[in-house]
Amino acid sequence: MGARMEDAGDRLIIWNGNTEKRGALSPELYACILEACELAKERRIRSIILTSEGPFFCAGGDLNVLISRQGMPEEERRAGIDGLHDVIRAMRACPVPIIAAVEGGAAGAGLSFALACDIIVAAQGAKFVAAYVKAGLVPDGGLTAHLARTVPRQLSMEMCLLAQPVLAERMHALGVVNALTEAGRTMDAGQKFADRFADGPRDAQAAIRKMVAAAYDATEAEQLDHERDAMGFATGAPEAAEGIAAFLEKRSPNYG
User: Is residue 229 part of a domain?
Assistant: First the structure.
């Protein structure tokens, strides 16, 4: 099975399969992510966890599939890449946080998927590899954009030009990985993040996601306007009323 989605109440869990190919991309994985991002519009959903059935998060594109595209017209090859990019766009536009639980490693477009998530939990020793150049290819899935926003330029060049693996420990030191775990325990840590999102103010979290995403491309003046508008709305919303009351009354808020 390429992938499956589990509905776990306040969270959706996407299990990447295709274990015989180390979780290589599949149409089922694309479909599961797109479906999860659509279902996340329901208020009961508070987060999405993206993880793997096997010991490796995602090895990226299936080279046999890429070989089959070599004889296609360039326009058709571009259309295949657009399918991947539609998934990345859906992840970035998703109203709830997405957590990557990375076992073993993430390579190629698998790294793109991990970096498109909001929180990354990785097993100790897991490897992050922009593997494209090894096959005479170039990054896709927004990888260069995500690397530019998360690591120094020289490391991005090292990863993309040399396909140099970077261990989870180094990514954690750089702040790209939020938490390190023992092998086989990334889902435990991912669930803890999901628990915290479930207890928080959903609308404020969604607004924060949009604001942080916009900040990478906005000028300071534009971002100040974004913050003004979002704060102006949030101050009068029910979540703020509950949050402020709970703080003043020294109790835990109940955002429902």
Answer: yes
